Task: structure prediction
Amino acid sequence: MFTYEFLQNYWWFIISLLAGLLVFLLFVQGANAMILITGADEDEKQLMVNSTGRKWELTFTTLVTFGGAFFASFPLFYSTSFGGAYWVWVLILVTFVFQAVSYEFQNKAGNVLGKTAFRVFLTINGFLGPLLIGTAVGTFFTGSDFTVDKAAVGDSFAPVISTWGNGWHGLEAVADPWNVSFGLMVMGLAICLGILYMMNNIDDGKLCGKLRRRLLVSSVMFVVFFLNTVIWLLLRRGFAVTGDGTVFMEKYKYLHNLLEMPGAAAAFAVGTALVLWGIVGTLVSVKFRKGIWPAGIGTVLVVMSVFWLAGYNGTSYYPSYSDLQSSLTISNSCSSEFTLRTMAWVSLIIPFVVAYIAYTWKAMDRKPLTRQELEGTEHKY
Result:
């Protein structure tokens, strides 16, 4: 019914969708980054923490689902990146563990560290989590230092398939300014989304005024790094793949991909416009408090289009700059046809899961969070 090539492309589409949802849900991290630098009083800080405390599990679950989907559909990427560049992924997971512990224990009896210590942990998660995730994704375009023994692929007795080329194991990505620019762009976007979410979710005029001022600063930072990253991406050489699987460097590869894939170009343009609508609309109108929705939908579209540029149209999505022919593509790193086909049938339940999440979200956010509500409940994060 479905060809092997179709299944490969289908699962890259699913990975792109999960990536888009993950970046959107990083609004939790973006909101965390604002807890200690907004100039909020204690009640306002509690409002901010409780606002995102209802949602942090969604971000963590999506991160785990994203990693699990990559493992199941593109296992060679999982073994190469997660097994080679493990320090980056370990640091990302540590920041999310900080988040989980902070939400659950900062208001518990016997907390010897105090609320401030756990809020510092949340702030670290807010800045460092999106920065590291963005930096890691940046290597999809700049490349990494690894080699793959393709003769060992499919050999169950082969002890090692992928070998990392240095002792930094992923930390070398921060030495590339373009990776860091990518990370700062994602961090800036997460902060903007976090502010937009809290302004929609919290009914407190004083706090929303402080958040709006922070949104202006954060949006400028985001736009600067967004333009810097996009211009660099479209003008750089990319890792192209021939019909027989040979990888070579092509000038303006990602610009060519954008021009040759109208769907990706449309998603990128519409998504960018929606993100700007959400941010600018909130800045110019005090009454406009639903900016999180156009900005959130736009974020998903832009991230999906970026992943399409990285993996479709004869492109290596995880290139090796030390050995071009070790670079990973959709076709040379995917699971077997049987595995992809079986998972494709299982993936049909995704719309029902999304519908349940949407229903739960709506139930939790039926009305904005207020100081009075916090005073009347014992359940505080």
User: Anything to note?
Assistant: The chain has one domain: 7-375. Residues 205-235 form the longest helix (31 residues).
